């Protein structure tokens, strides 16, 4: 007796269905109480479902520029534009696309600094998260940060590229000592250097319904401790949380520009999603 041919089975195998995560993003940036210019930049791209770019997912970026006068603002906005453009123009997987975007941003900043004396020596931090399907891909340079709030657990996904942060990791300083150290803002990696090499995690981090990703510059984290930051994000809607965090940074002295973006992940009801086990056709017209 011959084994049954699967192709003759009139009942197709149903593919497992899992909720799709929808991304929403709230953002706010403030000059603070001391600085004359806002050298931070923040942006988010969430393509529509019918946009071919939707396959690349959503992208959120924060950057904190440096360089004096308006040069820091130039550097951070170059980084933002480069990340958004190159990431979505890349045909590679998310880690490869993020690495290419970081390199392009670094090259563009170096080129502008070399061509414009007013921008000589400028640089910027850059913290980026790409959310593709149910995974987050993180790219980072500098001391801006990305956090994950999942239920009651709040943790930092990035490591600060600073002299003091390295001392903490080496056991030479405590976290409390690091917060008061006079060299806490001395960075060892930024965009805008000739020998820059991107460091992007090769695997994405699984996401869940209800997760919140928080991206912020040190104008937030220098003024607000992690426990307070987590409490605000947990107890407010993302838009209100952004406003509250900026308010708290200003109340603490507002010594620096303060920028935050909060990405929320919500599962779309299965009934609203197309069933992948059902094949559909669309009408096409010849031109």
From TrEMBL:
It comes from the Bacteria. Residues 24-265 form the PPM-type phosphatase domain. InterPro entries: PP2C, PPM-type-like_dom_sf, PPM-type_phosphatase-like_dom. Its EC number is 3.1.3.16. Keywords: Hydrolase. It is an enzyme of class 3 (hydrolase). Pfam families: PP2C_2. SMART domains: PP2C_SIG, PP2Cc. GO terms for molecular function: protein serine/threonine phosphatase activity. This is Protein phosphatase PrpC. It comes from Cupriavidus numazuensis. The lineage of its organism: Bacteria, Pseudomonadati, Pseudomonadota, Betaproteobacteria, Burkholderiales.
């Amino acid at each position: 007796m011959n084994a049954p041919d699967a192709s003759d089975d009139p009942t197709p195998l149903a593919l497992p269905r899992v909720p799709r995560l929808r991304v929403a993003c709230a953002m706010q940036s403030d000059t603070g109480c001391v600085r004359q210019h806002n050298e931070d930049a923040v942006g988010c791209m969430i393509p529509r479902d019918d946009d071919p770019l939707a396959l690349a997912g959503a992208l959120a970026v924060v950057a904190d520029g440096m360089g004096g006068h308006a040069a820091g603002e130039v550097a951070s906005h170059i980084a933002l534009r480069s990340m958004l453009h190159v990431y979505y123009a890349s045909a590679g997987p998310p880690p490869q696309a993020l690495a290419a975007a970081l390199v392009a941003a670094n090259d563009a900043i170096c080129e502008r600094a070399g061509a414009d004396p007013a921008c000589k020596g400028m640089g910027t931090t850059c913290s980026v998260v790409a959310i593709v399907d149910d995974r987050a891909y993180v790219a980072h340079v500098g001391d801006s940060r990305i956090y994950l709030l999942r239920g009651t657990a709040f943790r930092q996904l990035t490591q600060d590229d600073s002299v003091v942060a390295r001392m903490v990791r080496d056991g030479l300083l405590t976290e409390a000592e690091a917060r008061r150290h006079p060299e806490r803002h001395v960075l060892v990696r930024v965009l805008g250097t000739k020998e820059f090499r991107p460091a992007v995690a090769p695997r994405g981090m699984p996401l869940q319904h209800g997760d919140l990703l928080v991206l912020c510059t040190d104008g937030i984290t220098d003024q607000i401790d992690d426990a307070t930051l987590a409490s605000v994000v947990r107890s407010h809607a993302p838009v209100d949380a952004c406003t509250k965090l900026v308010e708290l940074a200003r109340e603490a002295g507002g010594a620096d520009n303060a920028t935050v973006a909060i990405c929320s992940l919500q599962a779309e009801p299965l009934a609203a999603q197309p069933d992948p086990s059902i094949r559909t056709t669309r009408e096409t017209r010849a031109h």
